[in-house]
Amino acid sequence: MKATAIKSTAENRHALANLRQSLISKLPHTRFVRLVSLPQSALEQLALSGAFDCFGSTRRQALWEVLALVNTCQGELSLELEPVKDSREKIPAMSTGEEIASDFKSMGLSPGQHPMTLLRKELTGQGILNSNDLYAKESGTTVNVAGVVVIRQRPMTAKGFMFITLEDEFGCLNIVVKPDIFKKQRETLIMNNALIVRRLLEKRDGVINVIGKVFTALSKPGSSDKISIKSRDFR
User: Fold this and answer.
1) If DSSP codes are grouped into helix, strand and coil, which group holds residue 206?
2) Residue where a domain terminates, one of 41, 72, 107
3) For residue 125, what are the domain limits?
4) How does pLDDT run across 133-171, given as a tens digit for each residue?
5) Are 176 and 210 in contact (CB under 8 A)?
6) Is 106 helix (H, G, I), strand (E, B) or coil?
7) Closest CA to 211 of 201, 220, 221
8) What's phi and psi for 33, nearest 5 deg?
9) Exposure string (b/e) for 27-54, b if CB count within 10 Å is 16 or more?
10) Which residues, other chains included, contact 151 with Cβ-Cβ below 8 Å and sequence gap of 6+?
11) Is the pTM of this model over 0.85?
């Protein structure tokens, strides 16, 4: 799955076929690198996305090994790979957060944990609910929610309203932004790809919406850095 999702290799069927053959034949990924003619950027994405995890290397180890091979002259690519294996033990593995960030950078998604999972304990301590919690709340209740921006829409026919779909580890949240709120908080709403939303819960005809009033950027745990995940925006 990871290999077929890599942006730089999506159309390179020959390379993917060789990777599958390497898996079937239980060949090391160093053999795969020698079998295909992929640019360095594509091999980096494969390593950083975890495509070589099944060979027993961590992502950083695989990246180190791949770059070592790429930087070696073709005539020297023999079986002299022992220094790579010895050195890789010293390379620290990525944290879960770093792996998720690499997934989104290379594939635009993460087949592992959702980014919000890493923030949930901190958010719960701040009284911020997840999408499942809203089912137990009454319409008209003031709520605080947060999530990654999946879609932003502000159609011409909506009379200035913006509609945002946030995603957390349990599902999606429908956020409605009134025209006056959009004007006041336009920069926050447009420039951030993860948001905390505060205001009114609305339940109507089986649909749950949050009528947002106060929006703030959602940052990484213990950091002021913003979460960077590309959303799909429509007008």
Assistant:
1) coil
2) 107
3) 115-234
4) 999 999 999 999 999 999 999 998 999 999 999 999 999
5) yes
6) helix
7) 201
8) -60, -40
9) bbbbbbbebbebeeebbbbbbbbbbbbe
10) 163, 164, 165, 231, 232, 233, 234
11) no
